[in-house]
Design brief:
The chain is mostly helical. It has 26 helices and no strands. It has helices at residues 3-15, 19-28, 30-33, 37-49, 53-66, 71-83, 87-100, 105-117, 122-138, 143-155, 159-172, 177-183, 190-193, 196-206, 211-223, 228-242, 250-280, 287-294, 296-319, 325-350, 360-375, 378-397, 404-428, 434-440, 448-483, 498-517. Helix 5 runs antiparallel to helix 6, helix 6 (71-83) runs parallel beside helix 8 and helix 16 (228-242) runs antiparallel to helix 17. The longest helix is centred in the C-terminal third of the chain and has 36 residues, at 448-483.
Amino acid sequence: MEFDVLRTRVSHHLATGRAAEAVDLLKENLQQHQENPAFWVHYASGLLHLDRHSEAADAARAALNLDVEQPEAGLFLAFALMRLGQRDEALQTVYWLIETWPEFADAHYLLGLILAGSVRSAEDRMLSRQATEHALRLQPENPEYYLGAAMAARVSGDHRAALVHLQAGLGIDPHHQGMLRYAAEVENGQQLVGDRGQLLRGLLARDPLNQGLHEDFAETFIEKQRVYRNRFWIFIPLLACLAMFDSLAEAAVLVIMPALIVLVSGAFALWNRKTFKKASEPLPAGYAGDIRARHPWVFRGLRLYRASWVAGLVGALLACFDAASLLGTVVLLLGVAGSQLAAAWVDREAAGVPQDPADREAHRLFLLRRSGWLASGFWMRVLMVCINLVLFGYCAAGGSRLATVPLAALGLGLLSVAVPLIVAHIRLGAAGNAFAYGQVVGASSKHRRAALVRGNVAGIYFIGLHLVPGLLATGFAAALLVVGPSGLAPTDPLPMDPKRSELDLNLLDESLDELRTQRPEIVELPSLPAVELP
């Protein structure tokens, strides 16, 4: 096949999303055009569309070996190296492109993307913005460059500039999927594109075969399911406190308190149901089944939440009766443990579990995202801990075994944060964990070592702040469950025998009478000799 015809057909296949057909067509003509550098450029492009980055890098190198004057081959090589996690090699290739072709806008744009996607110092943030904005000056009509400039601005913390770039880019191409999807993630981005769920539904209706949109839709839905963690952290301990009202009359306990527990549980279930419906409202018909297939652990977590709700209701009803208080407490504790396990499943899926176990870069990003989410919301956890301490104090003041429930909820809630952070800290290492990374990206390269030390010290302190109280609270809860109400109630004085008391008083009176009748003996002192003074 003539090369011009082959190039036209391959370009058409790539433009219409048929990258596999384009690569197959190139393979069929490999023997005929293997000495043509442009052939290898198209081959690398097709392989990049299929995410076969290692093969794409080899094809780009083959093109450069045939003709070094191939800027597109260098661009594809740098992009493939970036996706393979070889950051330094990718940057070296991009710098060579910029030195050789200073007006090659794509090279400046790719430099900005590489630096924004793997920030290692404050200089990387600055250079990323400079590179993307320079690409914009070279080609101000390219909407892709506005997206890159928005990404670089967001990484540097300038959300307002990111919105300005996105607004300008959408003015050129109002239907650009990349900018629309990214605008939904930027702070105050809803001012440009509205609700993210509704936006993705509209994009999916226009492009139903776009797998990236499907993943974005699933991620948006999953993130909204993380709200139940804090709710269950308080709900079950609150039921335990309601079940402890044993100071009322027995008839009131048998009627009023169970009815109140059922009422509170029903209102809580309706609240959660309304939240789920609001999250699933933008989903197209049948799309929940697609998310279930992609992320089964999310729906397993939701089912475990429902089981925890049932355990809380049943346990609280059993705890209303003294004969079944121990069984009710155990069932409530099962509900506490189940809700924390469900939260861990949902958080894990929301962080984006890598599909390929061998993809080390994907695992690194997953651990960083999960660590960031666990580290966020610190003051909300402080509030949850204070509420559980108040509930524990109320139950402990009444000498009830139910005091173990808020104490166990406090401990397990803190451990569910500390344990995944410890695992991520160990797997990422001292130089790559989330706390060290957060310090390094805000410091200059000159102070990188000090930033690493500060980050690791802060990480260990933060983990200890959750681990130590979590272990103490869980251990005390287990001890109280074994000791029972006797370990909480104040010790009563021993009962006194009235006859014994009367006898003791009589003996005391007789002793006092003897002391009154006895007279003390007067001892005569010896006479002292007179002393004559001189």
